[in-house]
Each structure stands twice: as structure tokens, then as C-alpha cells.
Design a protein that fits this description.
The chain contains 16 helices and twelve strands. It has a single domain, classed as Orthogonal Bundle (Cytochrome p450), CATH 1.10.630.10. It is an alpha+beta fold. The N terminus is likely disordered.
Length: about 450
Amino acid sequence: MTTAHSAPKIPPLVPGGLPLAGHVAALIGGERRLALVEQVRAYGPVVRINVGPNVVVIVNAPELIHEMLTIKADEFTKGRLFEKLKLFGKDALPIAEGKPHLRRRRLMQPAFHREQIAGYVTTMRETVEPYISGWDSGTSLDLKTEMQLMTQGVVMSALFSSNPPREPANTILRSVDTVFTTAIKRAVLPIAPLERLPTRGNRKAKAASSALRTAVADIIAEHRANPGEYDDIVSLLLSARDETGEALPDDEILSECVALLAAGSETTAVTLAWLFHELGRNPDLERRLHEEVDQVLGDDVLTARHLGKLPYTRRLVQETLRLYAPWLVTRQTISEVTLGDYTLPAGTDIIWSAYALHRDPDLYPDPLRFDPDRWLPDRPQPPKGAFIPFGSGKRMCIGDAFAWTEATVITAMVASRWRLMPERGAVKALGAITTHPSELPMIPRPRDR
């Protein structure tokens, strides 16, 4: 591959010296994906790479990412990844564009106001308690799966007033994982013509999407049959009216609920898995967490009033969100756009990576060190736009405050009762729909208090 200088103000192609076996190969493997987005930062604030027959632009500079997500947000669509996530539903809030996105966000915002989220804390606690009380001392846990089931249960309880038993919940979880895996593969590889073929993978993705929608449709049907018994986001959507006074179509309500279920549990679950992995190999940090939780909670059950008294717990969550942020988010230019000194033609596919941004040594001293105290108020803080685990601007994740609260609640509840000990081997970070641990077996041991 050679450097291209033919078009002024358009970033050059990354030269062939990139120490990876081709960019397509890099995007196939989970570890290689992470290496690619980190390594291309060395080539400048904006670079182009070849992905098969396509050219993809990677935006690295925090000020340009901020410009793209805020000031010039209307000049971009959400791009390839979100297009492929339409497997969850084509008009759902995380995927919608333009005015439909704005209308739907305004409609759903009341369910995510901070006052409303404080009211979810009791539901979060009651949903999580059976999971952690059911752990057996000395019996290995697949912690990533356990956290996925836990956070999925929280989303379903708080937003859907539904908490299915473990086995149906496992079925939902496997369906979500399958759809996410399919979406990320289709987003990073130039295989669009293959998506319509009846391959095993395509049939599996279609079946998973169907199973997921069926499970959520049953919840919506229960709400319709007993409209006075619920006060949650499903009932909010069922009672909503559009600008003409018409109710939302059933398929749109279904798509919104499916997308909320998938997006609402993924990032928080992975964050918690990584958090306890880091505590398992940093006993001093774990001890400080236990001390704070014991001092604040004592023998009380956790409530919303305790959360503001857990600053160290919150810093642990924040540092995990920094170090293990989502590795890939996409955008696409609608027309010609200028970012800084670079002019991008209409239709340009763009990637930005919070994972790589958050590990830049120019922004974060000793970036690979897990250090929750870097977020203390008296420490130098990263520049504006350099910490964006939930995105930024008007398309920022609507559930960010929900996720912060949920992660703090679960961290404190687990820490009040258990130590989670690493079982074996090195844990690798993989670029899936978010940044996943390869596997994470951990052994719960009761706290010695």
C-alpha cells in the first residue's frame, strides 16, 4: 500500500508499513481490531485505510471527534454499524436519523430523567439480589455472562416491569449476542451481497432476531391486556401519540423495546466484568472499595440516598469506562464536510474509537494503568471531548445516567458480600460490539468483615 497525495486536504492512506497483516484481516480478529484502532493514531488526526475495495476514514483527534458529534452532527448519518443494527428494528431510537430520532428521543426522555432513575434504584437492588445471593463460594462463575444476565434483568425489570426466569433470560441473551455479532461483522467487512444469501450465519441471525422480538412482543401484549397495572417505558410508548394524534404502530413499539433491551444491558455488563477483573488483580483497590461500601452501607440495604456517598465506587466505574470503552463507532458524511484541515467527500465511511482515544498517552498519563484516582478533582483532567464512553452531542446514549447508576449499584452490592478471585490464565480484550473480555472465570469468596 502506498501513500496517496493526489487530493489536497483529504487524509492520506495509511502506508503499508502498518504492522498488521492487512486491514481486512485486522478487522476480522477481535484482538487485531483493537490493535488496528490504537496503531493508526500514530498516523495523524485523520487517516484513511483500505478495507477490501472500500476506503474508511478514521478520526483520531478529540477536537475533531467532538466537532463531528456536536457542531456538525447534522452533516453525518450514523453510518455502517448502525445500519447493520437494524436487525433489532429499523426505526428504533439508537438507529433512527434526523427528525424521527429527535421526536422519539423527546418522547422517551422522561423515562431517563435523573429523578426517575433514582426511583429505579430499589428495582435494581431487588433484581440483582437473587443473582449474587445465589453464588456458591468456591464455584467458578463465567462472570461476563453473569453480568450480562444481571444487567439484562435490571433493564427488563426497571423499563419493562418484567423479570423472566434464568433459562428464558439466557435465551434472550444468546439472541442479543448473535445479533450483535452479526451486526459488527457486517459493519467491518465488505460483504453486503452475502447478507441476503441463506447461509448458516444469516439464518442464525434471522432466527435470533425473531426470537428476541417474540419475547418482547409477549411483554407488550401483557401491557396491552392490563394497561392500568404498569408505569414504565412500555406503557409510555403504548400511550404515546404522534403529531397527527395517532398511536405508534405496533412494529415501532416493538423495535424500540428490543433495541432498548439490547443496548441497555451490553455496555454496563461488559464494564462490570472488566471492573471486577481489575479488582481481582489489584487487591489494594479492592480493599478500598470494601472499606467505602462497609462505611456507607453498614447493615443497611442500598438506596438512592447512598449513591452520592460512594465516590470511590463511582471512580472505579469511570476508570473502567475509560480503559475498556467501545472500540468502534461509525458515521457517514451526507455531503462534503470539512473537519479541521480535512475535507471529506459525501458518502465517506468514518470510524472513531473511544477505546483508542481513552488510551492515548498524550491525553492520559500512563494510560494502560488502571487508576481510579486519576479522576480525583485535584488531578489534571483530560481535555473536553477526550472522555466519551457514551458518545456526545444530541445522539449521546439516552441511557447514560441509567448505566452509571446501575453500574454503581451492582458494584456496591457485590462488594458488600463477595470477593471475586481470578481463576486462571490471561484475559484478552476483544473488539466485539463493545470491548469484551475473551473469557472471565472468577471464583466468589464470602467477604471477611
